[in-house]
Write a structure and sequence with these properties.
With 158 residues, the protein is an alpha+beta fold. 31% of the residues lie in helices and 30% in strands. Strand 6 and strand 7 form a beta hairpin. The longest helix is centred in the last third of the chain and has 15 residues.
Length: 158
């Protein structure tokens, strides 16, 4: 059980976060990895390296931190067509506590600053938690291409 007074802080990924991101990804169970990366067998080292250096891809990474430990991670990858792809993962004990929603809000704020018109996430239909977070946000569009749903959200104007 989580302490009611536990504070979660969200900040941008910065130099030196690779070990923390590695711990977060390493702590995900196989199903969580599958829902996030569409495969349960990921190279954790490569995934953590990618996530801890979003600047290499003109992306923005966010970390949710509680009691000095990472409990969630999110990324926004801006595309040349004015859209951005988003993805995130939250550690199992911290799911259903508003962290994914808070990460999504921050990603949308970053997308607005960058002048993006919409963001989207490719989601497996079995990923009920991710679909719920995106749908609960408000206006959205959904499409399905085979075994992947794409949920698109407009970026609020600043």
């Amino acid at each position: 059980m989580l302490a009611a007074d536990t504070t979660v802080r969200i900040r941008e990924v910065r130099a030196g976060d690779e070990a923390a991101i590695t711990r977060l990804i390493n702590g995900l169970d196989t199903e969580s990895r599958y829902l996030r990366w569409f495969t349960g067998a990921i190279d954790i080292r490569k995934a953590a390296d990618w996530a801890s250096h979003p600047e290499r891809f003109c992306a923005v990474g966010l970390l949710a931190i509680a009691a000095g430990e990472p409990v969630g991670h999110a990324v926004l990858i801006p595309l040349a067509d004015g859209r951005g792809e988003i993805a995130f993962e939250v550690a199992a004990p911290w799911r259903h506590h508003g962290i994914a929603g808070a990460l999504l809000e921050q990603l949308l704020a970053v997308a607005a600053v960058r002048g993006l018109r919409e963001v989207y996430a490719d989601v497996l239909p079995d990923n009920a938690d991710m679909l719920a977070v995106l749908r609960e946000h408000g206006e959205h569009a959904e499409s399905c291409d085979g075994s992947v749903k794409t949920v698109t959200l407009p970026v609020p104007r600043r």
